[in-house]
Specification:
- This is Stress-response A/B barrel domain-containing protein.
- InterPro entries: Dabb, Dimeric_a/b-barrel.
- The chain is α+β, with helices and mostly antiparallel strands and about 80 residues long.
- The chain has one domain (about 5-65).
- The protein has helices spanning about 5, 45-55, 60-65, and strands spanning about 20-25, 40-45.
- A two-stranded antiparallel sheet has the order 1-2.
Length: about 80
């Protein structure tokens, strides 16, 4: 998952376009994870880059296909940093 930061290439610039990527295994003692065991945060410069990643990026789409049958539950949240 984190390798996508370097393997996802923007179709116009031909450069990696994911601004940052981080993630890890849950270690919260609160017990409110609802079955989610790992979390990942990808940061994009703009919504258009995020949309390309979701809908069209060949590296991302190939990665998603490798997860078929491996993931029991997934949850995606998109947010704008510091906008509440």
């Amino acid at each position: 998952m984190l390798a996508l930061k370097d393997s996802c290439i923007h179709p116009t610039s031909q450069q990696p376009y994911i601004k940052s990527a981080s993630g890890g295994k849950d270690n919260s003692p609160e017990g409110l994870q609802n079955g989610i065991t790992h979390a990942f945060v990808l940061e994009f410069t703009c919504a258009a880059d995020r949309d390309y990643y979701i809908q069209s990026d060949p590296s991302h789409l190939a990665f998603v296909r490798t997860l078929d049958g491996l993931i029991e539950k997934a949850q995606v949240i998109d947010f704008t940093n510091r906008v509440f």
